[in-house]
Amino acid sequence: MGEQQHGKFPQDVIDEYSALGVDLVALFSAGHLGTRMGVEVVEASVERVVGTMPVEGNTQPYGLLHGGASAVLAETLGSLGAMLHGGSTKIAVGVDLNCTHHRGARSGLVTGVATPVHRGRSTATYEIVISDEEGRRLCTARLTCMLRDMKPGDPVHAQAANRP
Questions:
Q1: Each residue of 49-65: b (16+ CB within 10 Å) or e?
Q2: pLDDT tens digits for 3-60?
Q3: Residue 40 designated active-site
Q4: Cα torsion at 87, 93, 96, 98 (round to 10°)?
Q5: Which of 57, 76, 129, 149 has a C-alpha 20 to 30 A away from that of 82?
Q6: From the candidates 75, 127, 133, 134, which is the catalytic residue?
Q7: Which residue has the higher pLDDT, 158 or 50?
Q8: What average pLDDT does the chain have?
Q9: CA geometry: angle at 76 spanning 73 and 82, to 5°?
Q10: What is the pLDDT of residue 28?
């Protein structure tokens, strides 16, 4: 794992998870679905999560960016913000996702920016704005995640248990 990947997370957060034996970048990645769709998290903090996704390969039959692809990008970024807010003792679980699609995109790279609307003890809500390469808003999404206490067998514990 290169330094470039580590640069997108605040050092104190990297240290917190490293102390648990957890690879932060792998834990907070877009997962298998995000990998298949080309989602890349470029920046991640409690206050702002930024990620990109190509339009190519993520279109509907009319050749436009699929609304579901926008939803995947939005949920990935908002969930990451909620998990960072909850810290290493909480798991963020999405309970509500709302997406409004304003315009289509046929090519290029789209960028999503997630910012907090509410950061509480048991829930976190993020607004995610997805734009095209010209900065035009394609989609506005809102994600609310429930923050629940970490339990044995949750991803952080499982990842730490599988370390060599």
A1: bbbbbbbeebbeeeebb
A2: 334 347 778 877 887 887 777 766 666 678 888 999 999 999 999 999 999 999 999 9
A3: no
A4: 70
A5: 57
A6: 75
A7: 50
A8: 87
A9: 140
A10: 65
Show the tokens assigned to 151: 């339990």
In the structure encoding, which two tokens stand for residue 48, read together? 């702002």
User: Six-digit token pair at 54?
Assistant: 């190509």
What's the token pair of residue 110?
A: 């789209």
